Amino acid sequence: MWFRLRVxxxxxxxxVVALVNTITRRFDSAVELKAGDIAPDFTLQGSDGRVxxxxxxxxxxxxxxxxxxxxxxx
Length: 74
Fold this sequence. Notes:
The protein has 1 helix and 2 strands, in the order αββ. By secondary structure, it is mainly α. It has a domain at 1-34. The protein has a two-stranded antiparallel sheet.
């Protein structure tokens, strides 16, 4: 019983560490922009499931709006 619990805790801990490392790497590559800077190319998934790339809209005005999903508390 205790052995299984320790294995479970170790497994969950490893998963959490992997997730934190992945998230940290993602934000380490973030670029700090100032007002007037040209936005770097990026991709985002729309609520329709399609993935959009900023460069697809070159020369157009782009407005990003996002909302938390219902009942997520965010």
